[in-house]
Amino acid sequence: EKALALSTGEKITEARAIYENAFSSGMMAEVPDFYMAYGSFLSDRKEYDLSEKMFKEAEKLSPDYSVLLYNMALLYVRKEERQKGIELLKKSISLNPNHPGSHYLLGIIALEDGRVTEGSMALLAYLTLVPESTVNESIILKLNSKFSENYLTKGNLVFSKEGDNFEDIDVILRNSLPLKSAYKINSVFDDVIIRQMQAIVDYAAEHKVQNGFFERMYIPWLADVAKRKQFEGFSYHILYSIGEKLGKQYSSQSKKLDGYVNGYLANNFWDVFAKRTVDLFGKQEEVVVYLKDGSPYYGKTVNGKKEGKYKILNNKSNIASELNFEADELEGLQKYYDYKGTLIEEKQFSKGKLNGKRTVYFSNGNPELTENYKNDMLDGAAASYYRNGGKQCEGSFVNNLHDGLHSCFYENGSKQSTATYSKDKLNGKYTYYDVAGNITEEQLFVNGEREGKLIQYYDGKTKKTETEYASGKIKKDYKTYFPDGKPKEETVYEKELPVKSVYFYPNGKKSYEAVFDKSGDPTSYLYYNDNTELYYQENYKQGDIKSGVQFGANIAKPIDLQVNKGVYAIKDFNGNILSSGKFEKGKKTGEWNYFYATGATRSKEDYANGLQVGKSYSYDKASRIEVIANYSKDSLNGVYESYEGNKLQRNFFYSGGKANGPSKTFYSDGKVSTESFYIDGNLFSKQISYWQNGKVNQIIEYFNDFPVKLQTFNPEGKKENEFDYKNNSGKIKHIYNNGNEVHEFTVANGLYDGKYTVKDKLGNLITDCNYTNAVRTGKYTKFGPTGAPQLEHNYYSGVVNGVSAYYDLVGNLRMHDTYIFGDNTGLATRYYSNKSKFSEGTRVQEEYEGEVKYFNTKGDNILILGYQNGELKYYTALDKSGAVTLKTPVSAQTAKIVSVYSNGNTAMEMNFVKGNYHGAFVIYNNAGQREYEAGYDMGLLTGTRIEYHPNGKIYKKENFKDSEFQGVQEYYKEDGKLWLTAEYSNDELHGLCKIYKDGTLSQTKKYDSNELVEILK
């Protein structure tokens, strides 16, 4: 649609770019209209060979599609290959009598080839089908030309290999016999067109039909017009487009025209005009091609009733269904197909009603749904299935109502949920299991309504939600918890309605409160800072803000804020503006700006009548752009771009709040990393991943977020593996990167289920992990170039849970970090190469909370940073005695921090600007020698980061650009001898990794885009 709009608006370059990208990336695959649109675009620009290629691709998908056949014929006319065009137009008309363009183009070609009878018949069909067309006047002018003086030279085109002998009428027309006064006409219009067309109609009644195309397609209809004495109305109908120009003479015949339209055209025309001899399931049958929503269907009729097999086509003229009739009622097996002609449904009928089994299929042939019916009502067993195999749910019905046990399963066959129904209502206990087999939700239902306690768990033990129901309504407090057990929300209910809700920061402190009226509608929201100090209150009535109240450290008396009067600014407890904008009638309007407590802009948004519209911008704490999005009526619509370090990382196209269209991710250098396509937020078509050299690394084909097929390629672009997920279970072995990586894994119905290992060609582990139903479970270990661990995670049901360990390239521990059900919450400890602590502190959802202590390599505490909800509040440095006691408050998260040993030497120095590390970050030993140094640019690592052995020699030199590894990384032993060098690009191992023993090169490994591609030594 975008390409068509651009080309229509003469933005040819932009349209071409969209078409070329869609074709090269495979986005056109299986979309004949997309190929056809591109083909027409190229044809219009005289790029005929490439145009033909696009049409041929579309033809593979929809060989009988009349619109496609017409456009291909038009291409061949432009290429001066009219004979090819004629064959396509004849096919189009044979298959779909209601494609006017095909009649028109065939008629024009015939006239220009001197075939006045053939051309006239085809053009009369066009005038009949589309009487209001803008081209009709030009057709009328052509047919109003005297055939004795025009279109005299017959060409060499072949319109029919046999039959179509119109010599008698041709002689009559060429000799102008119909133009003589002796020839009586049945119309008030005595014009050349009327006389010549009446002659053809009169002739049709006498013509003996043989096997010619025109005599089969048009003669029966025109003969019927003559036999039913309908020519007068026919003559007015073909002149309809110029009726106003003809004036009173035409309007005076309106009753006769209406009689023709509502009589003959409505009741008799189609049964004659659309009669065809077609292949009806392997047998040539004479049928009438009927239309439903513009799409053809046909079969036999007996005494006016449908009888036997009927073929129904879709709007691309591919088969849509095979129906069986007895006496006009569906009987027996009925089959239905998707737009490509793939069977998607089968149903059994008896006397027009569903009786027996109904099966719905995925496009890959696997069953999607099985049901049993009795007299049009569900009755008996029913089951749904996963696309790639495996039962999804099963249950039973009685008289169209769900009844009995209903069970659902994961793809690997393990239980997902159980419930019991009685007369279509849940009755009894509902239980839900995670992939680990633990119960994460249990609830009693009575007559379809929740009853009693509801407790939801993260893992079967750790509470996530709890409340209590009576007759489907909450009767006690509703509580939710963060993974670490701290409260997330507490809502108090009275008489089944909320009275007050309290929401908490991840650190457990109160964030805001909502107060409700007797009807359960919110009347006010109260907002608190990290110290639980009230700083702002918002008052509502019927969903609209009515007033606000500002509180603060320096405000003796709360300040009333007037809505709808100028700029409305909300400040924190210390007076820093958090947001500002305008209201109109209680709803946001115009530009609104939001800020961090440091004063840096957090985001910019636009509103109209309370709904977000237009562009929005989000920024990180360093004022770098993070997101640019487009909104319409509060929903994402248009381009969505996410950035890291001011570099585009990913883009989407949104429609109606969901991803719809192409999406790309990018390497830091701007090259494309992956390409995907979304429909309603789900992955469809091909997701293509690229090596850094631009060649395809991997292609995964998706259907509605389910992987269908996998292909992998080596860095040279050669395909190495192909994997079909359909019904695939068992152990699989794939060889990657010219044999340098060996992947072994187990699948259940196409999903990873069991152990997954990656080894190099020498048998050394690269990855060791386990999956349950496509999500990671248990321990995950990734090994580095030396064979030592590089990363260790523990997973629970697909999320990281427990203490993770991170190692550097030579295998030395550099960090322990804690996760609770996917949340980065708990103790985080960094280490020096000698295993002593570098720093230690507690995170809550990635942000530090409380004190973070820093140490030198001897283990001495040399500095403490104090955080609250991720914001730097103070630091504590060494005093003159060497104790960490000098506490200094920090304002706006900006401070130059220096801690000094008792001997006067600097112990540590760093600089914060608006919460971002900025400038030099250095740790020294007591003697003043550097132990660690790094440089930051507003939170991003830049330049060289160096860590030293306790003896003062360099341990490692790492090079960064915008917090990504870039360039050569170097590691050294305590004696100064080289240990390892590794080349990085775009934060990935990319190039040579050299491993040394006693300073001598012992092994070289080559990496490409983080994958091992060669062992050189």
Describe this structure in words.
The protein has a 29-stranded antiparallel sheet that branches. The protein has a 16-stranded antiparallel sheet that branches. The protein is built from 17 helices and 77 strands. It is an alpha+beta fold and 1017 residues long. It is 18% helix and 49% strand. Among the domains are: 1-96, Serine Threonine Protein Phosphatase 5, Tetratricopeptide repeat (Alpha Horseshoe); 113-273, no CATH class; 663-725; 727-824, Histone H3 K4-specific methyltransferase SET7/9 N-terminal domain (Single Sheet), CATH 2.20.110.
In short:
The protein is an alpha+beta fold. The chain is 18% helix and 49% strand.
Task: Tag the structure with descriptive keywords.
single chain, 1017 residues, alpha+beta, Serine Threonine Protein Phosphatase 5, Tetratricopeptide repeat, 29-stranded antiparallel beta sheet, 16-stranded antiparallel beta sheet, 17 helices, 77 strands, 18% helix
Count, helices? 17
What structural class do the secondary elements suggest? alpha+beta
Total number of beta strands: 77
Query: Overall pLDDT, averaged?
Result: 95
Flag low-confidence runs. Answer: none
What oligomeric assembly is this protein in?
A: single chain
Produce the secondary structure layout.
Elements: H1 2-8, H2 12-24, H3 32-44, H4 48-61, H5 66-78, H6 82-95, H7 100-112, H8 116-129, H9 136-143, H10 167-174, H11 192-204, H12 213-217, H13 219-227, H14 231-238, H15 243-246, H16 248-251, H17 254-273, E1 275-279, E2 284-288, E3 290-292, E4 295-302, E5 305-313, E6 319-326, E7 329-330, E8 332-337, E9 343-350, E10 353-361, E11 367-374, E12 377-378, E13 380-385, E14 391-398, E15 401-402, E16 404-409, E17 415-422, E18 425-426, E19 428-433, E20 439-446, E21 449-457, E22 463-470, E23 473-474, E24 478-481, E25 487-494, E26 497-504, E27 510-516, E28 522-528, E29 534-541, E30 544-550, E31 559-562, E32 568-571, E33 577-584, E34 587-595, E35 601-608, E36 611-619, E37 625-632, E38 635-636, E39 638-644, E40 647-655, E41 658-659, E42 661-666, E43 672-679, E44 682-690, E45 696-703, E46 706-713, E47 719-724, E48 730-736, E49 741-748, E50 751-760, E51 765-772, E52 775-783, E53 789-796, E54 799-800, E55 802-807, E56 813-819, E57 826-831, E58 837-844, E59 847-848, E60 850-855, E61 861-868, E62 871-878, E63 884-889, ...
Antiparallel strand pairs: 1-2, 3-4, 4-5, 5-6, 6-7, 6-8, 8-9, 9-10, 10-11, 11-12, 11-13, 13-14, 14-15, 14-16, 16-17, 17-18, 17-19, 19-20, 20-21, 21-22, 22-23, 22-24, 24-25, 25-26, 26-27, 27-28, 28-29, 29-30, 30-31, 32-33, 33-34, 34-35, 35-36, 36-37, 37-38, 37-39, 39-40, 40-41, 40-42, 42-43, ...
Helix pairs in contact: 1-2, 3-4, 3-5, 4-5, 5-6, 6-7, 7-8, 9-11, 11-13, 13-17, 14-17
